[in-house]
Protein backbone atom coordinates (compact mmCIF):
# COMPACT_ATOMS: atom_id res chain seq x y z
CA UNK A 1 0.00 0.00 0.00
CA UNK A 2 1.37 3.40 -1.01
CA UNK A 3 1.30 6.47 1.19
CA UNK A 4 -1.55 7.93 -0.83
CA UNK A 5 -3.57 4.74 -0.45
CA UNK A 6 -2.96 4.69 3.30
CA UNK A 7 -4.08 8.31 3.74
CA UNK A 8 -7.15 7.75 1.60
CA UNK A 9 -8.31 4.35 2.86
CA UNK A 10 -6.82 3.68 6.30
CA UNK A 11 -5.86 6.90 8.06
CA UNK A 12 -9.31 8.21 8.97
CA UNK A 13 -10.78 4.84 10.08
CA UNK A 14 -7.77 4.34 12.34
CA UNK A 15 -8.01 7.86 13.79
CA UNK A 16 -11.75 7.53 14.36
CA UNK A 17 -11.27 4.17 16.09
CA UNK A 18 -8.54 5.59 18.35
CA UNK A 19 -10.61 8.66 19.26
CA UNK A 20 -13.65 6.48 20.02
CA UNK A 21 -11.59 4.10 22.14
CA UNK A 22 -10.05 6.89 24.25
CA UNK A 23 -13.34 8.79 24.63
CA UNK A 24 -15.03 5.63 25.92
CA UNK A 25 -12.12 4.30 27.97
CA UNK A 26 -11.66 7.43 30.11
CA UNK A 27 -15.13 7.35 31.71
CA UNK A 28 -15.07 3.56 31.46
CA UNK A 29 -12.10 3.47 33.84
CA UNK A 30 -14.13 5.18 36.58
CA UNK A 31 -17.15 2.99 35.86
CA UNK A 32 -15.02 -0.13 36.19
CA UNK A 33 -13.54 1.02 39.50
CA UNK A 34 -17.06 1.81 40.75
CA UNK A 35 -18.22 -1.66 39.66
CA UNK A 36 -20.59 -0.05 37.18
CA UNK A 37 -18.86 -1.22 34.02
CA UNK A 38 -22.07 -2.47 32.43
CA UNK A 39 -23.54 1.04 32.37
CA UNK A 40 -21.72 1.51 29.07
CA UNK A 41 -23.35 -1.70 27.86
CA UNK A 42 -26.74 -0.46 29.03
CA UNK A 43 -26.42 2.94 27.37
CA UNK A 44 -25.35 1.44 24.05
CA UNK A 45 -28.43 -0.81 24.10
CA UNK A 46 -30.83 1.95 25.11
CA UNK A 47 -29.45 4.34 22.48
CA UNK A 48 -30.57 2.19 19.55
CA UNK A 49 -34.36 2.71 19.74
CA UNK A 50 -33.82 6.41 20.42
CA UNK A 51 -31.59 6.79 17.37
CA UNK A 52 -34.02 4.91 15.14
CA UNK A 53 -36.94 6.97 16.44
CA UNK A 54 -35.01 10.19 15.77
CA UNK A 55 -34.37 9.07 12.19
CA UNK A 56 -38.03 8.19 11.64
CA UNK A 57 -39.12 11.60 12.93
CA UNK A 58 -36.54 13.74 11.10
CA UNK A 59 -35.78 11.57 8.08
CA UNK A 60 -32.07 12.36 8.29
CA UNK A 61 -29.03 10.85 9.98
CA UNK A 62 -27.58 13.88 11.76
CA UNK A 63 -25.64 14.25 15.01
CA UNK A 64 -28.01 16.36 17.12
CA UNK A 65 -31.25 14.52 16.31
CA UNK A 66 -29.49 11.21 17.02
CA UNK A 67 -28.17 12.45 20.37
CA UNK A 68 -31.57 13.89 21.29
CA UNK A 69 -33.23 10.56 20.45
CA UNK A 70 -30.69 8.63 22.50
CA UNK A 71 -31.14 11.02 25.44
CA UNK A 72 -34.92 10.60 25.25
CA UNK A 73 -34.54 6.83 25.23
CA UNK A 74 -32.28 7.04 28.29
CA UNK A 75 -34.95 9.01 30.18
CA UNK A 76 -37.60 6.43 29.24
CA UNK A 77 -35.27 3.66 30.40
CA UNK A 78 -34.71 5.30 33.81
CA UNK A 79 -38.47 5.73 34.33
CA UNK A 80 -39.15 2.11 33.34
CA UNK A 81 -36.40 0.79 35.63
CA UNK A 82 -37.78 2.68 38.62
CA UNK A 83 -41.33 1.51 37.83
CA UNK A 84 -40.27 -2.14 37.54
CA UNK A 85 -38.23 -1.93 40.76
CA UNK A 86 -41.15 -0.53 42.74
CA UNK A 87 -44.01 -2.49 41.20
CA UNK A 88 -42.15 -5.78 40.82
CA UNK A 89 -40.10 -5.40 44.02
CA UNK A 90 -36.95 -6.72 42.38
CA UNK A 91 -33.37 -5.55 42.71
CA UNK A 92 -32.00 -2.88 40.36
CA UNK A 93 -29.73 -5.21 38.37
CA UNK A 94 -32.64 -7.39 37.30
CA UNK A 95 -34.76 -4.33 36.44
CA UNK A 96 -31.92 -2.91 34.35
CA UNK A 97 -31.50 -6.21 32.50
CA UNK A 98 -35.20 -6.39 31.64
CA UNK A 99 -35.43 -2.79 30.42
CA UNK A 100 -32.20 -2.69 28.43
CA UNK A 101 -32.72 -5.97 26.61
CA UNK A 102 -36.36 -5.10 25.87
CA UNK A 103 -35.50 -1.65 24.52
CA UNK A 104 -32.64 -3.00 22.41
CA UNK A 105 -34.92 -5.66 20.94
CA UNK A 106 -37.52 -2.97 20.24
CA UNK A 107 -34.86 -0.90 18.48
CA UNK A 108 -33.77 -3.80 16.28
CA UNK A 109 -37.40 -4.63 15.43
CA UNK A 110 -38.18 -1.00 14.64
CA UNK A 111 -35.09 -0.80 12.45
CA UNK A 112 -36.02 -3.95 10.55
CA UNK A 113 -39.56 -2.71 9.93
CA UNK A 114 -38.56 0.79 8.87
CA UNK A 115 -37.68 2.03 5.39
CA UNK A 116 -34.01 2.93 5.66
CA UNK A 117 -33.14 2.19 2.04
CA UNK A 118 -32.20 5.82 1.41
CA UNK A 119 -29.55 5.96 4.14
CA UNK A 120 -26.87 3.74 5.60
CA UNK A 121 -28.85 2.69 8.65
CA UNK A 122 -29.58 -0.98 9.19
CA UNK A 123 -29.24 -3.68 11.83
CA UNK A 124 -25.69 -4.64 10.83
CA UNK A 125 -24.67 -0.98 10.89
CA UNK A 126 -26.24 -0.53 14.34
CA UNK A 127 -24.53 -3.61 15.76
CA UNK A 128 -21.10 -3.44 14.13
CA UNK A 129 -20.79 0.14 12.87
CA UNK A 130 -19.40 1.20 9.51
CA UNK A 131 -15.80 2.02 10.36
CA UNK A 132 -14.44 0.56 7.12
CA UNK A 133 -16.53 2.97 5.03
CA UNK A 134 -15.27 6.13 6.75
CA UNK A 135 -12.54 6.75 4.20
CA UNK A 136 -11.12 10.08 3.03
CA UNK A 137 -11.52 10.15 -0.73
CA UNK A 138 -10.15 13.70 -0.98
CA UNK A 139 -6.94 12.66 0.77
CA UNK A 140 -4.54 12.15 -2.12
CA UNK A 141 -1.45 11.93 0.08
CA UNK A 142 0.16 13.34 3.22
CA UNK A 143 0.15 16.81 1.65
CA UNK A 144 -3.66 16.74 1.87
CA UNK A 145 -3.35 17.26 5.63
CA UNK A 146 -2.38 20.85 4.79
CA UNK A 147 -5.05 21.36 2.13
CA UNK A 148 -8.16 23.15 3.54
CA UNK A 149 -10.33 21.93 0.65
CA UNK A 150 -9.33 18.32 1.28
CA UNK A 151 -9.72 18.67 5.05
CA UNK A 152 -13.29 19.86 4.52
CA UNK A 153 -14.06 16.44 3.03
CA UNK A 154 -13.00 14.49 6.14
CA UNK A 155 -15.66 12.11 7.52
CA UNK A 156 -17.86 14.06 10.00
CA UNK A 157 -17.40 11.31 12.61
CA UNK A 158 -13.76 12.37 12.99
CA UNK A 159 -14.57 15.93 14.07
CA UNK A 160 -17.49 14.76 16.20
CA UNK A 161 -15.39 12.26 18.14
CA UNK A 162 -12.53 14.75 18.50
CA UNK A 163 -14.95 17.25 20.09
CA UNK A 164 -16.42 14.58 22.38
CA UNK A 165 -12.95 13.41 23.41
CA UNK A 166 -12.04 17.00 24.30
CA UNK A 167 -15.21 17.23 26.40
CA UNK A 168 -14.38 13.97 28.19
CA UNK A 169 -10.80 15.08 28.87
CA UNK A 170 -12.01 18.41 30.28
CA UNK A 171 -14.51 16.59 32.49
CA UNK A 172 -11.85 14.25 33.88
CA UNK A 173 -9.22 16.97 34.36
CA UNK A 174 -11.56 19.48 36.02
CA UNK A 175 -13.22 16.91 38.31
CA UNK A 176 -10.27 14.59 38.83
CA UNK A 177 -9.98 15.02 42.60
CA UNK A 178 -13.68 14.57 43.49
CA UNK A 179 -13.99 11.76 40.94
CA UNK A 180 -11.02 9.89 42.40
CA UNK A 181 -12.17 10.34 46.01
CA UNK A 182 -15.80 9.39 45.30
CA UNK A 183 -14.71 6.39 43.24
CA UNK A 184 -12.52 4.86 45.94
CA UNK A 185 -14.41 5.98 49.07
CA UNK A 186 -17.89 7.41 48.57
CA UNK A 187 -18.51 7.76 52.30
CA UNK A 188 -15.36 9.84 52.77
CA UNK A 189 -16.34 11.95 49.77
CA UNK A 190 -19.68 12.70 51.42
CA UNK A 191 -17.93 13.91 54.58
CA UNK A 192 -15.85 16.30 52.43
CA UNK A 193 -19.01 17.82 51.01
CA UNK A 194 -18.66 16.26 47.58
CA UNK A 195 -22.06 15.76 45.98
CA UNK A 196 -21.50 12.16 45.05
CA UNK A 197 -24.93 11.55 43.51
CA UNK A 198 -24.63 14.57 41.23
CA UNK A 199 -21.09 13.56 40.34
CA UNK A 200 -22.23 10.02 39.52
CA UNK A 201 -25.01 11.40 37.35
CA UNK A 202 -22.53 13.64 35.51
CA UNK A 203 -20.31 10.61 34.88
CA UNK A 204 -23.24 8.71 33.40
CA UNK A 205 -24.11 11.70 31.17
CA UNK A 206 -20.54 11.90 29.87
CA UNK A 207 -20.62 8.16 29.30
CA UNK A 208 -23.83 8.52 27.31
CA UNK A 209 -22.37 11.31 25.16
CA UNK A 210 -19.28 9.20 24.39
CA UNK A 211 -21.40 6.13 23.61
CA UNK A 212 -23.72 7.98 21.23
CA UNK A 213 -20.81 9.73 19.48
CA UNK A 214 -19.01 6.41 18.93
CA UNK A 215 -22.18 4.48 18.08
CA UNK A 216 -22.34 5.53 14.43
CA UNK A 217 -18.75 4.55 13.70
CA UNK A 218 -18.23 1.34 15.68
CA UNK A 219 -21.73 0.09 16.52
CA UNK A 220 -23.28 -0.89 19.82
CA UNK A 221 -21.29 -4.09 20.37
CA UNK A 222 -17.82 -2.59 19.95
CA UNK A 223 -18.82 0.43 22.07
CA UNK A 224 -19.27 -2.00 24.97
CA UNK A 225 -15.76 -3.36 24.44
CA UNK A 226 -14.31 0.15 24.29
CA UNK A 227 -15.82 1.00 27.68
CA UNK A 228 -14.64 -2.17 29.40
CA UNK A 229 -11.58 -3.73 27.71
CA UNK A 230 -9.03 -0.85 27.88
CA UNK A 231 -9.71 -0.07 31.58
CA UNK A 232 -9.69 -3.78 32.43
CA UNK A 233 -6.41 -4.27 30.57
CA UNK A 234 -4.86 -1.27 32.36
CA UNK A 235 -5.57 -2.87 35.73
CA UNK A 236 -3.86 -6.16 34.91
Count structural domains. 1
> Any idea what the CATH architecture is?
Orthogonal Bundle
Question: What's the assembly state of these chains?
Answer: single chain
Report the order of strands and helices: HHHHHHHHHH
Annotated CATH homologous superfamily: ABC transporter involved in vitamin B12 uptake, BtuC
CA radius of gyration: 19 Å
CATH class bucket: Mainly Alpha
Record field, number of beta strands: 0
Distance between the termini: 36 Å
| Percent helix range | over 70%
- Structural class call reads mainly alpha
What portion of residues belong to β-strands? under 5%
| Overall 3D shape | globular
Give a quick account of the main beta sheet: strands, pairing sense, barrel closure. none
CATH fold label: ABC transporter involved in vitamin B12 uptake, BtuC
Report the total helices: 10
Quote the average pLDDT.
Answer: 79
Low-pLDDT segments, ≥5 res: none
Structure description:
- By secondary structure, the chain is mostly helical.
- Helices cover 78% and strands 0% of the residues.
- It has ten helices and no strands.
- The protein is globular, with a radius of gyration of 19 Å.
Topology of helices and strands:
Elements: H1 3-33, H2 38-58, H3 63-88, H4 92-113, H5 123-128, H6 148-151, H7 156-174, H8 176-184, H9 186-191, H10 196-234
Amino acid sequence: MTGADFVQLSLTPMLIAVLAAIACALPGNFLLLRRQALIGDAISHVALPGIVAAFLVTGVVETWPMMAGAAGAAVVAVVLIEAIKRLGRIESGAAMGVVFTAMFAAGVLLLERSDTSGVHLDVEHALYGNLESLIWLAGEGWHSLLDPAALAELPPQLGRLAAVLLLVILFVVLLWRPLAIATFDEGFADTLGIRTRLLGFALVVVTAVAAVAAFDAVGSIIVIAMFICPPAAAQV
